[in-house]
Each structure stands twice: as C-alpha cells, then as structure tokens.
C-alpha cells in the first residue's frame, strides 16, 4: 500500500510535466489545426533560458532568496520562450496557413530539428541542472517519502492549469480563441483579430511549456535532445485526452504519467513504456479517434 | 548494367595504373578516431579526443614515427559517431574508406560492437580504449576472438566480479539491488555478471531493475527497490544518469550505500551529483594518485595542455595509441595485415593504466582499482588483481 501511494506521487510528478506540455500541442491544434511538432523543442529551449538566467541571477544578485530567484527565472523563461514561439509562428507557419496541412506539419518538424541542432552546436551536448533554487527537504509520512520540490511541481502545475482553464472559459481573449477555433473564416467577420489571437495562443502555449521546463529542470538534467521523447509523450497525452480540448490534454498528461510509472510496476520492465503508451494511442485512434474528452467532428466538405 | 561493366573495369584499371605510378607509398600514416563527441556521453568523447591529439602531437613533435628506416608523420582523422550504433558503424566505414591504418575507438560498448563488425569485415585493425563488453572482441557467430579487434581495458566479466567481491568483503552488503540500462551492452553485461557472482557467493540480489538510455525519471524502479528492502544499490551506468539516479533514490528515502563501475569516472559526475554522491565507490582502470613514472609524465603533459587531470578514458586512449605506435614500428611497414599481426604479438605493454598482458586474444589481462568519492574528488581506495 505504501508502495502504491509512493508510485501515485511519482506518477503525479511526471504527469504534471506531460500535462503542461500537452496543453501547448492541444491549444495550437485547436486554433489552427496544426500539430506543432516543434513544441517539445520549444520546451527544451525554455529550460536553457532558465539555466542561463538562473545561473546569472544567482551569481550577480547574491543573497536573493530562492523563491524570488525562482520566480524571476520563471518569468524570464516564460517571456523569452513566448517570444520564440511567436517568431516561429510568424516566420515558419503563417506563410503556410492556407497551404496543404502536411506542409505545415513538415515545417514544424524542421523547426524542431533546427532548435535541437542549433542548441547542440552553440551550447553543446553536456547535460546540466538548473541552479538549486530550493534546498531539497525530504519528508516521510507513514512510510511514504516525498520532497518539497515534488510538492512544488505538483501544486504549481495544478495552479497553472486552473488559471489557463479560467482564462479560456471566462475572459474575452479566451472567448476569441474559442471563436477562431470554431470557425476561422467567420470569426474575423465578427471583429476577432485572428492573427493576434493566433500569436497569443502560441505565446500562452509556450509560456506554459516554460513553466513545465523550469519545474522539470529542478529535478532532471537538461540537454539539447530532451524535447524529443517528452514531446512525443506530451503529443500522445494531447491525443489521448482529445486534441484541441484543454481539459483533455490535462487528463491525458496525468494518464501518461501513470503509464510511465506503473508500466515497470505491473509489467516486468520499464522498456515496455513506449509499447504501452503507443498501444493506448492506437486503441484510441481505432475506437475513439477524437480522444477521451473530445467531441466527434463531422468533416466539412 | 551490362553496358556499364566495361566502363567500371576501365576505371578500376586506370586507378590501378595511377596508384602504381605513385612513388614509395604515402608520406603520412593515417590513424582514425571513432569517438562519441556528441550524444549522451560527450565528456567521454572530449577526453578521448584530447588524449588522442596529445599522443599524436608527441610523436609528430619528435619528428614522426620511424617505420622501416623512414620517418612518417601521423595524421589523425576524427569521426564523430554521435554515440549511436548506426553512426558508429558508418564512421568506421568512412575511416576505412579514407584508408586509415588503425582505427581507435569507439569507447562505449554499444558503439564499439557494431564498429568492430565493420573493422573485422574490412580487415582494419581496431583498438577500443574503453569498451569493456566481452562481445566487442568476440565473434558472435563462432564464439571465437575477432581477428582485428583489440582493447586497452579489462572486460566486464572481470569488473562485475570485482564489484561483487568488493561489495561483499568491504561493504558487507546483505541485500543488494541493481538498476541498469537494458538497451546498452555495457550496463546490461556488467549487471548480469554482478548478479551471477553475488548469487554464487550466496548473497541474493533483492531487486534487478532496468531502464532505457535517455530516461530521466527512475522513481518507479527506485520505489520498487526500496520496497524490496535493499541495503545497497549497484549502478553500472554512465555518469550522465548516475547523478539523477542517486538524487532520486535519496529523495525517495534510500539510505544504503551506492556503488558503480568505471563509467562513473568523469569529473562531471561530481559536478552534477554534488554532495549526493559523497562517500560512494566505483571500480575503474587507473587512479591518478598511485601513478607510475610513465603515467606521471602523461598526467603532467595532459594537464599542461588541457588544464585538467586526465580521466580513465584519456589514459586508456593514450595507451591505445601507444599500443598502435609500438605495433606499427614492430611491423616495419605500412600494411594493415602486418600491423595487426604485430599488435597480436605484443605480449607485455607497460602503459599509463598499468601493465597489460595479451594472451592470444584482443583482451588484456590487467588489474582494477576501486575509487571513492571524497570531498568532491576521486580518491584511491584499493586495488583488485585479476
């Protein structure tokens, strides 16, 4: 039983990061029907921004409290990453907005490769940790061990998702996003600035990925290729939850977190992980192609 | 295709004539380096390249290598194998096509094994500095030693046995657990031999867990290990992953001793791991603090050129080049077949990493050392003889 609760905590930690990244996939898909395969690499770039900003702040502003340092790093990383995503959208995807959909997807893959190799060439392949913002404290309650960092990851992720959900459902920007998603030809006739809304969507998706990146970098090492596997898993999360659906992406992220943790517990080895994850994806695509929370869409002719 | 044949024959014929006209063979000796410059273990690649450049520079500064009464400069061709199986084989093909006399590397067994197949097929002598998996020098089909592949380090069987014996006698472990990368020949080989030795000594391994290279979260496996009541953890994994595993084990409340293998021996392990790795042990090839005069000279030269103490990969690469140079001189001509023969005739070689003896195979017989991480440094602890 202790073992089970311990594993659930582990799964929540991993699932939080998947959910945050899956949100970026799902929002972009929702608004321009593009699977932004560069999103995993945008997440990778966000961790490098956090690494450089965090290290610089820690060395120039000595004596800053860990919390303040973390918040400043987080804001810088969110800002820089959003800017990057908006630029990518402006220069790589916008010219292709009315091109066949596959052209944009291939471009997205190309942008991802560019980000990976650019990082590799300029920064190098060595794995790094973000600076330690918080001293690690471990607690054991009833035989279940957890750390303050783990709690921060789980709670901050949940808060970010809550805020996003409110923004999309309750604000004007959220309403405009839903309108563009619903019908991008009619929305401008109603006075919705489509280009700006698309940019905002990319910016929000990227800044959520940056939150995920800062949290991820506190416990795992970062390297130029880290975005590939996480990107794929987050993509599966988004599809499992119902791509285009925000709550679906959150749910999908946690489901994939549980797959990651419970595969080696139930099956003999952790190497079955990808097998399990992709099997779930296949089953869903066969029996419920619009995902768990998605709604079926009739193909418009 | 039929019409092309005469044309091909003509081209081949012409190239034969052209090459026959060239006077007295090449001016330089080409040595290839198949190395992990990018990928998951870049520090290994960097150390290997540094040591290779140092070894070549020393020979060239002394006027070159004297072979059959003539001095030849050494030309080093470096190919990045990106720490990938396919690229390691492709890099070996490329070096073979470039006409290298000997290929040094790759270092990680997962790359050295496919590259060794290429070397064997093309009759190109290969020396891996750091690959400890038995399969590197063993022909999988026949079970016989490969004819063109050698190494400068001991093999996993020996290291696995040393680690197990050390754990029993010095660390007094009762319930060891193992976590290893299942898709990497090196990690898997050493983990299995460790388990076998432990069980033969009557100490059962309570948890034998695996992961895939590139994984960063090990909490599921570590939780299982802790639930199994393990008192110690053996991590025969690369320095990029060990810090994550150690830190995550600590966060999950693991209190026992942790130890590993030669893949720990990069200073970056300490940078990434911080205080979490303090006091832990690993088996490896050499210890800078008990070095012989020959090793001292190398350590000094390396430090002067690169500003840091050479790690085990650097030392083994330097020895691999030493072996190659000695064999080329003994062969007396620039010919792969003769050099390969000379390599296999080396009965005893005193290198930076100790004395090596070859007994008819490509695997040297040499001793291992156990190092401890103490105050952010690797400190010599004990030596294990074969």
Describe the structure.
The complex is a heterodimer of chains A (301) and B (386). Chain A is an all-alpha fold and 301 residues long. Helices cover 72% and strands 3% of the residues of chain A. Chain A has 10 helices and 2 strands. In chain A, strand 1 (138-141) and strand 2 form a beta hairpin. In chain A, helix 1 crosses helix 8 (226-241) and helix 8 crosses helix 9 (246-266). With 386 residues, chain B is of the alpha/beta class. Chain B folds into 2 domains: 26-154 and 291-366, Rossmann fold (3-Layer(aba) Sandwich); 156-284, Response regulator (Rossmann fold, 3-Layer(aba) Sandwich). In chain B, the strands form 3 sheets. In chain B, strands 8-7-9-10-11-15-16 form a 7-stranded mixed β-sheet, sandwiched between helices. In chain B, strands 2-3-1-4-5-6 form a 6-stranded mixed β-sheet, with helices on both faces. A 3-stranded antiparallel β-sheet of chain B has the order 12-13-14, covered by helices on one side. Chain B is globular, with a radius of gyration of 22 Å. The model of chain B has no long low-confidence stretch (mean pLDDT 89). At the A-B interface, helix 1, strand 2 and helix 9 of A face strand 8, helix 7 and helix 8 of B.
């Amino acid at each position: 039983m202790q073992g089970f609760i311990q594993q659930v905590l582990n799964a929540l930690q991993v699932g939080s990061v998947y959910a945050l990244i899956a949100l970026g996939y799902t929002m972009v898909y929702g608004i321009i029907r593009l699977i932004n395969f560069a999103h995993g690499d945008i997440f990778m770039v966000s961790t490098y921004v956090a690494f450089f900003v965090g290290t610089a702040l820690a060395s120039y502003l000595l004596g800053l409290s860990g919390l303040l340092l973390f918040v400043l790093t987080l804001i810088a990383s969110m800002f820089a990453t959003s800017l990057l995503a908006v630029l990518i959208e402006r220069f790589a995807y916008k010219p292709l907005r009315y091109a066949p959909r596959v052209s944009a997807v291939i471009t997205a893959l190309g942008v991802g490769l560019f980000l990976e190799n650019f990082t590799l060439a300029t920064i190098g392949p060595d794995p790094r940790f973000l600076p330690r913002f918080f001293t690690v404290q471990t607690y054991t309650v009833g035989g279940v061990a957890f750390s303050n960092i783990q709690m921060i990851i789980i709670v901050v992720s949940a808060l970010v998702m809550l805020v996003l959900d409110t923004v999309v459902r309750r604000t004007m920007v959220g309403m405009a996003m839903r309108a563009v998603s619903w019908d991008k030809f009619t929305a401008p006739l109603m006075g919705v600035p489509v280009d700006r809304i698309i940019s905002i969507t990319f910016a929000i998706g990227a800044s959520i990925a940056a939150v995920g990146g800062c949290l991820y970098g506190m416990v795992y090492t970062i390297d130029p290729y880290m975005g590939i596997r996480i990107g794929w898993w987050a993509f599966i999360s988004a599809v499992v939850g119902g791509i285009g659906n925000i709550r679906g992406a959150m749910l999908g992220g946690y489901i994939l977190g549980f797959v990651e943790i419970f595969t080696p517990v139930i099956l003999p080895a952790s190497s079955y992980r990808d097998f399990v994850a992709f099997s779930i994806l296949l089953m869903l695509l066969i029996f419920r192609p619009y995902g768990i929370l998605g709604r079926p869409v009739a193909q418009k002719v | 295709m039929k019409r092309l044949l005469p044309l091909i024959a003509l081209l081949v014929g012409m190239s034969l004539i052209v090459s026959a006209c060239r006077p007295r063979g090449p001016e330089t000796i080409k040595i290839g380096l198949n190395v992990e410059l990018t990928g998951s273990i870049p520090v290994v690649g960097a150390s290997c390249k540094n040591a290779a450049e140092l070894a070549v520079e020393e020979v060239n500064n002394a006027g070159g290598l004297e072979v059959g009464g003539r001095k030849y400069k050494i030309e080093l061709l470096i190919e990045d194998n990106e720490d990938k199986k396919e690229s390691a084989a492709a890099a070996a093909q490329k070096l073979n096509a470039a006409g290298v006399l000997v290929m040094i590397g790759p270092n990680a067994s997962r790359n050295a094994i496919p590259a060794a197949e290429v070397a064997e097929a093309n009759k190109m002598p290969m020396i891996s500095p750091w690959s400890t998996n038995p399969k590197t020098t063993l022909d999988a089909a026949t079970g016989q030693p490969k004819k063109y592949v050698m190494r400068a380090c001991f093999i996993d069987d020996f290291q696995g046995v040393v680690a197990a014996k050390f754990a029993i006698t010095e660390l007094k472990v009762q319930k060891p657990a193992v976590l290893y990368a299942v898709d990497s020949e090196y990690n898997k080989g050493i983990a299995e031999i460790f388990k076998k030795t432990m069980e033969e000594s009557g100490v059962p391994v309570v948890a034998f867990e695996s992961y895939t290279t590139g994984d960063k979260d090990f909490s599921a496996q570590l939780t299982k290990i802790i639930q199994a009541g393990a008192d110690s953890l053996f991590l025969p994994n690369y320095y990029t992953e060990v810090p994550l595993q150690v830190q995550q084990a600590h966060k999950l409340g693991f209190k026992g001793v942790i130890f590993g293998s030669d893949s720990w021996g990069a200073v970056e392990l300490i940078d990434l791991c911080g205080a979490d790795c303090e006091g832990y042990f690993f088996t490896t090839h050499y210890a800078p603090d008990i070095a012989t005069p020959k090793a001292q000279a190398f350590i000094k030269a390396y430090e002067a050129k690169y500003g840091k103490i050479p790690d085990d990969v650097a030392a083994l690469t330097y020895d691999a080049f030493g072996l190659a140079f000695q064999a080329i001189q003994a062969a007396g001509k620039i010919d792969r077949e003769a050099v390969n023969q000379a390599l296999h005739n080396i009965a005893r070689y005193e290198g930076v990493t100790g004395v090596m003896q070859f007994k008819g195979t490509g695997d040297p017989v040499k001793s291992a050392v156990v190092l401890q991480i103490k105050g952010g440094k690797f400190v010599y602890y004990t030596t294990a003889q074969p």
